Amino acid sequence: MKRRQVLKMAAMAAATAAAGTASAQKKRSLPVSGQGVTWDKAPCRFCGTGCHVEVGVRGGRVVSIRGDEQAEVNRGLLCVKGYHVGLALYGKDRLTRPLLKQGDKHVPISWEKAVDIIAQRIKRAPERFAFYGSGQWTIPEGYAAQKFMKGGLSNNHIDPNARLCMASAVTGFISTYGVDEPASCYDDLDTCDTVIFWGNNPAEMHPVLFSRLVDRRGRGETVRIIDIGTRRTRSTGFADHYLEMKPQGDMAIANGILRLLLEDGTWNKEFVDKHCAFRKDGGKSALFGTASTFEEFKKALEPYTPAHVEKLSGIRESDLRMLARLFADPKQRITSLWCMGANQHTRGTAMNRLIHAVHLLSGHFGREGDGPQSLTGQPSACGTAREVGTLAHALPGGRIVAKAPHRRQSEEIWNVPEGRINPKPGYHTVKMWRAFSTPTDKGGDVDTLWVQVTNPAHTLPNVDELFTPSRKLDDKFLIVSDVYPTASTRQADLILPSAMWVEKNGVVGNSERRTQHWFKMVQPPGEAREDAWQVIAVARRLHDLGHPGMKTRDGGFLFDVPDANGKPVPVWDYRRFHDVNVDKHLFEEYRNFTRLKHKDLAPYDEYVKARGMRWPVVKQADGRWQETRYRFAEGHDPYVGKGKGFDFYHSTSKDGKAQIWFQPYVAPPEVPDGEYPFWLCTGRVLEHWHSGSMTGRVPQLAGAMSGAYVEMHREDARDTGVTTGDTVVVQTRRGALELPVWVGGRGEPPRGTLFVPFFDETRLINQLTLDAHCPISKQPDFKKCAARVQRASSGKKS
Amino acid sequence: MPVSGLVITLADGADLDPLRALQPLSFGEAVGCRLPAVAETDDVLSEQALYEQIEALPGVLQLEVAFHDFSDVSEVERLPSRRRNKRMR
Q1: Residue B44 forms contact with A (CB below 8 Å)
Q2: Which of A66, A83, A218 is the closest to B33 by Cβ?
Q3: Which of A30, A374, A397, A627 is surrounded by the most beta carbons within 10 Å?
Q4: How confident is the model over A569-623, as pLDDT tens digits?
Q5: A475 vs A478: CA distance, rounded Å
Q6: What's the confidence (pLDDT) of residue B84?
Q7: Which residues of B touch A87 (CB under 8 A)?
Q8: How distant, in Å, are the alpha carbons of A41, A518, A532, A603, A693 from that of A578?
Q9: What ipTM did this prediction achieve?
Q10: A787 has a pLDDT exceeding 50
Q11: Residue A259 DSSP one-character state
C-alpha cells in the first residue's frame, strides 16, 4: 500500500474516531507507531483551553498532529490553531543564536558572552533589574524565574503578561472565595441548560469548548445560549438571545439581576444563609473590603431598577427580567463563561465579583452544569502565573510577599536564609514598564529588563508611552528571549533564542485547574535553548561572580539539581542540562508549596501517565491519585467534610462562607464625546493567537487573516464615506493608525463602535489603547476607549 | 501534499450535495451530526481555501480537525511582506 493511502486511511480513522469520541467519549490508546513515525502526547501550545494533541515525529521533525481522543478536554478534536501547532515550529526565521545589538544591527555572540552580559548587568544593580514573563512560561520555567528573583535577588519586580489578561479574575476569586481559580470545570458545558457569555466569544477564542455546545444541540439536546456583548461575534450566531450592552454595561446588568432576585424573593435563601456572607468596599484592604449585611446589600441595590439598568447598559427591561427569571429557577443549570471582556476592565475585579455574586445569591453554584467558569487565554496563565505566582506581590502556592509566615515558608522550602525575601511587592506590569521607560534621573528605577515568552512591544497598552521611550534611553537594557523575531526582539539590546513547545519538557495548567505534562520530542533549531536553562545559567554566573543571593543557607547553589546519587549536576553547563530531568526537579520542589491553599499536585510521574489532572489531586487509600472536579462541594472536594454541603474553607470571613459583594456601577474612565465620538474595542481573532508571532508563521493562518482591520457599522462607514477595503485613520488621544475597513465582516459592531484585532504588529493598535487599569488587579482596559475615524487622505483601497 | 482528517458538524437536515461536490474531500460515515472527512490538497496554502469553502456552506455549523500530516512539507514558506502602516501622532 502506498504511503499516501496509509496516511489518508489514518486521517479518516482519526476523523471518524473523533466524531464518535466527541459524542460518546470513548477512550483509545495512542496511535501505534509506524511508517517511521513515533507518537507522544502534549497539550497544545496555544490558548488556555488545554487541548491535548498527539505529536508524530519522524527523523527528528514533527510531521503529524492529531487530536488526542483520550483527552477529556478536546476528545480528539482540534481547532484551526491547534491543528497547525506542529507547523508553528518550522517558520524559516526561527531565532537560532544569541544576538547583541551593536549600532543599528544585531550581531551573533556566544551563549557564554550573553549570559555574562546579563549577569554583569544584574550584579551592578540587582534592585534595578526586572523580569517580565507570561502565562506561556511552563510551570517549571516560571518557578525558576520566581525563585531566581524572589529567593535569589530579593527582588520582587517580576510580573507576567497575565496581568493584562487574568489579574482581575484572580482578585475576583480571592476576594469572593478566599482563594484563586474556578471551583467548576469544563464538564459543565456537557450538562448545563443555559450558558451565558459575559462579554465572551468562545466560538472564536475557545472553539473546542464551544463545540461541546454545538455537539449537544446536534444530538437534539436543548442548550440555551445567551450572549451579552458589545458587538455581534461568531458566538452570537449560535445564541438564542443576544443582549447588546453599552461598554461597562455588564456591571449594571449584574446589579439589575441581583436586585430583581431580591425584589421577587427568588434568591436562594437557604444557600445564602448557610454558605454566604456579604461584603462591600471599604476598610483597610481594597481587595478584601469590609463586612456588610444583607440589609445593607439590599439597600445598596435599590437604584438598579430595570429602567435604570436599561439606561446604563442599553439592554431592555424585558431582557433583564428574562435573565433574573433564569437565575430564579432552581432547576435551571446555568454556566457563566467570561474571559477578557470582564477582566480587561477598569472595574475588572468588581465585574468578576458581580458574576460570582449572581451565582451565589441565586444558589447556582457547585452542581454539574451550574456555576461560574472563568476562561483563560494562555496555556499556563493558571498553572504558572497564578499558581506558581509569578506576580509582583505573590509567592508560590497562593502566598504573598507581604505576609511574614508566607515568606518564612518559602525561605524554608528554598533553603535560603531568613529575611532573603523582600516584603515589599514589586512593580506590576504597567508600573514596571513605566519605570523602564522613564529616564533614570527622573525616577525610572528599572534599567535592565528581561522578557521571556511574551511580546510587550506589541501587547502592552499605550505602547508608545510604556515601551517605546525606553529604546531611546542609553542606560536602559532590554533582553528578550523568544523563538521568532517580534516587535520586542527587534528593539531589544540582547536577543536570546528559545526552545519552544515539544523542543523541551514542560508542565502547564489550564483554565479548569488541570495540570498537564509533556516530554521533549525534537531538538530546538541551532543554538536555541530552554528558558529555564537560561535563568539557571545566569543564576550560576551570578553565583560565580559572588552574588550572595545565589547561595542557599548551607552554601549550595540556589538551583542545585542532584543526580540519582544525590550529587549535584552542573546543569548550568548546557552540555549537562539534559543529564537529569530539570523540569521534574523544579516541579517536585514546587509541589511543596501547593498544599497550603489546597491546590495539591500529584508527583511529576503521575502527570506523565495522564492527560492532565485537576487539582486538588489527593492520594487515596488504595494509592491512586484522585483529581477534583468541583471545589468546595461535598462529594467532590476531599477537603469538604461530610454533611457540610459546601465549605469555602479559605473564606475571608473565616466562617466557611463565600462573599457576595455589592459593587456599584462605575462609568468607564474615557467615554466618547464630540471630539472622539466612537467606542474602540480590541481583541483576538480565531486564526491568530495573541500577537501572532507563532500563528503568523503558519501560511494557512496568515493567509486566512493576514492583517488587522477595523470593523465598522454599515451606517458609520457610509457617514465616513468609506466601504470595505477603504483605508481610514483611527485616532485616539494616544495615537493614530491607518487601517482597512471591514463592513459586515465576521463581527458586527453596533453604531458608534469600532473593533480592531491586536495580532498585527504592522498595525499596532496598542499605540491607541488606554493604560487606565483596575485599581485592585492593576489590569488595563483594552476593551473601551474613545476614538474617532476619518477617511485616509490617500483614500486608497488597502 | 498535506493530508487532513476533518470533522464537519452539520445542522439538522443540511444538504450534503454541495459538500460532496468539493473535490479534495472524501467522506466517512456520519456519527450523529458529525461528518468525518479527509482532505488532500496540493499544498498547505490551498487547504485554507478549502476550509473557507466548507465553512461558508449552508448547514455547516463548525469545522474541526482531528489529524494533520505535513511530513512532505519541507519548510513553512516565508510570509508575504506586509506594508508597514504609517504611524501618526
Answers
A1: yes
A2: A218
A3: A374
A4: 999 999 999 999 999 999 999 999 999 999 999 999 999 999 999 999 999 999 9
A5: 10
A6: 40
A7: 44, 70, 73, 76
A8: 20, 15, 12, 20, 28
A9: 0.86
A10: yes
A11: H
Nine cell digits for residue B53: 469553502
In angstroms, rounded to a whole number, what is the distance separating the alpha carbons of residues A414 and A556?
11
Q: Give the percent of chain B with pLDDT over 70.
A: 79
Other residues' Cβ atoms within 10 Å of the Cβ of residue A233: 25
Instruction: In whole angstroms, give the CA distance from residue A602 to residue A604.
Output: 6
pLDDT at B74: 56
Contact (CB<8Å) B51/A704: yes
Distance between A104 CA and the closest CA of chain B, angstroms: 19
Cα torsion A125, A126, A127, A130 to 10°: value is: 110
Mutate to test the interface with A, among B10, B55, B65 (most CBs of A within 10 A): B65
Q: pLDDT tens digits, residue range A387-413?
A: 999 999 999 999 999 999 999 999 999
Within 10 angstroms of residue A126's Cβ, the number of other Cβ atoms is 18
Shortest Cα distance, chain B CAs vs residue A130, angstroms: 29
Question: Which residues of A are part of the catalytic machinery?
Answer: 81, 165-166, 340, 377-378
Residues in B closer than 8 angstroms to A468, CB to CB, are none
SS (H, E, C) A322-378: HHHHHHHCCCCCEEEEECHHHHCCCCHHHHHHHHHHHHHHHCCCCECCEEEEECCCC
Q: Which residue has the higher pLDDT, B71 or A379?
A: A379
Q: What is the mean pLDDT of residues A717-737?
A: 95
Can you tell me the distance from the alpha carbon of A752 to that of A736, in angstroms, rounded to the nearest whole number? Answer: 18
**Percent residues over pLDDT 70 in chain A:** 96
What is the gyration radius of the CA atoms in chain B, in angstroms? 17
From chain A, the residues in CB contact with B71 under 8 A are 37, 56, 58, 61, 63-64
Distance, in Å, from the CA atom of A327 to the CA atom of A692, rounded to the nearest integer, reads 39
Q: For residue A176, give the C-alpha cell.
A: 469572593
CA dihedral A91, A92, A94, A98 (to 10 degrees): 180
- R_g of chain A, CA atoms, integer Å: 25
Instruction: Please give the grid coordinates belonging to residue A483.
Output: 523563538
Interface test with B, best of A4, A5, A6, A7 (most B CBs within 10 A): A7
Kindly tell me if the per-residue pLDDT of A27 is higher than 60.
no
Q: Of the candidates B71, B9, B69, which has an alpha carbon nearest to the alpha carbon of residue B39?
A: B69
Shortest CA gap B21–chain A (Å): 18
The overall longest dimension of chain B from CA atoms, in Å, is 58
Query: How far is residue A600 from each of residues A150, A292, A588, A617, measured CA to CA in Å?
Result: 22, 32, 12, 5
Which residue is closest to B5 within chain A, CA to CA? A11
Q: Which tens digit of pLDDT belongs to each residue from A510-543?
A: 999 999 999 999 999 999 999 999 999 999 999 9
- Averaged over B52-71, what is the pLDDT? 86
The reply to whether B21 touches chain A by the CB within 8 Å rule is: no
Size of interface A-B (CB pairs under 8 A): 192
Q: What is the pTM (predicted TM-score) of this model?
A: 0.91
What residues in B contact A91, CB-CB < 8 Å?
76
Sign (positive/negative) of CA torsion A113, A117, A123, A124?
positive
